[in-house]
Amino acid sequence: MTEPEKESQKQKSISPEAWTAIATVAVAVIGGIFTITNTILTNNAQNKTSSSPSPSHSPSPSSTSTPVPTSPSSAQLRVSNAFLGKWSGVAKEPSGKSFRINLEIQRNCSLNEKCGYISVPDVPCYGEISLHQVSSDDYEFDVSNFDSRSNLKICTPGAGERFHLLPNGKLAYKATYSNAQGILEKVE
Fold it and tell me: Alpha carbon of 62 to those of 15, 146, 155, 172: distances in Å?
């Protein structure tokens, strides 16, 4: 190789420092694209579900809530018309303690909307319910706004009241914070 060709080859090659600078810029650009994409996807997901775990409420002294995944189908984010009306039944905690539950669903409500009322007279707790989450055919309600008949030392607002419509037309009930379970029948 002649001397002028060697000089030309040197000018065409890129130094290790230049490669480092190029790699740093490329990583920064890719990282920026990832951050923007992640922010957009996160905001879209939050706008669609708008649900976050809230403190559990308890008609009994024990209270720990297990969140139920929200179904992405917007058609399922409403309470089924089959839930409308008044329901009553007995639930039993794993300890064997039983208590009556009365439920009233007044309208086909959407996520985070007031749907009706729930009461556990044995505690006593009397509060309003709103749809908190939907997973398959399980509907989880949030209880709040307890009235003056309620024992506010025990009744605390939050999610954890789950109902599932059974093929026989009854409602299966489970309290996620205490594992109490029962069956409610339609009374009106």
Answer: 68, 18, 11, 20
